[in-house]
Design a protein that fits this description.
Elements lengths: L2 E5 L2 E5 L4 H29 L4 E7 L4 E5 L3 E15 L10 E10 L5 E12 L16 E8 L4 E9 L2 H5 L3 E12 L15
Antiparallel strand pairs: 1-2, 3-5, 4-5, 5-6, 6-9, 7-8, 7-10
């Protein structure tokens, strides 16, 4: 049996009898079976329930402001995000604290903001420490000069101790603002040195 096929000026001929057709059918059956097995395999993976869940809780009050000697600091939209094991309800990763911060310079000098660090205090005012193995990230760097009566809007993304969440001991958040007052005084000295 001879077969011809013409397509765009090309011509293909097959002179073998029955060989290619049977081989082609085997390949199609193999591909079809592979796809069916793949679909069932994916369906089993999708059917498994997650073992962990992400839980987000808002801090109360939702917005607060405190006036210091040189700054007015406002925090808002604070949320704590935890990853918990569904079965045991145990927190499996160090929780994150996220929110907004606004710092307004109420002094008469330029103030060069270097960093903001947070400390977590219980209801008695004692520090809540991170446990061994927890990821500690409680500072944000800024390096921004704020002129008098101007503000800096920023975003907090830090960790909070598991103990503060598990035992609900959080009473206060202490904001430590690291800054340098401007104008800066500089002094340069020169040492007489030579290479031998």
């Amino acid at each position: 049996m001879e077969r011809e096929c013409r397509s765009k000026g090309l011509m293909f001929r097959s002179t073998k009898k029955g060989g290619h057709g049977m081989h082609f059918k085997k390949i199609l059956v193999f591909i079809a079976l592979s796809m069916v097995i793949g679909f069932f395999g994916c369906a089993k993976e999708k059917g498994e329930a997650p073992k962990q869940e992400q839980i987000t809780k808002k801090l109360i009050p939702g917005k607060a402001e405190v006036k210091g000697a040189n700054f007015l600091i406002e925090i808002s939209d604070l949320e704590v995000t935890t990853i918990e094991d569904i079965a045991s309800k145990k927190i499996v990763e160090t929780p994150n604290l996220r929110g907004r911060i606004k710092i307004t310079n109420i002094s008469k000098d330029n103030l060069d903001i270097q960093a903001i660090a947070l400390e977590y205090l219980d209801v008695d005012g004692k520090p809540i420490d991170f446990e061994s193995g927890e990821r500690i990230m409680k500072a944000s760097l800024y390096f921004k000069v704020i002129k008098p009566e101007q503000s800096l809007d920023g975003y907090l993304d830090v960790t909070i101790p598991m103990k503060a969440i598990k035992e609900k001991t959080l009473g206060n958040i202490e904001v430590n603002l690291v800054y340098v007052a401007s104008p800066l005084s500089r002094e340069t000295v020169t040492f007489p040195e030579k290479i031998e």
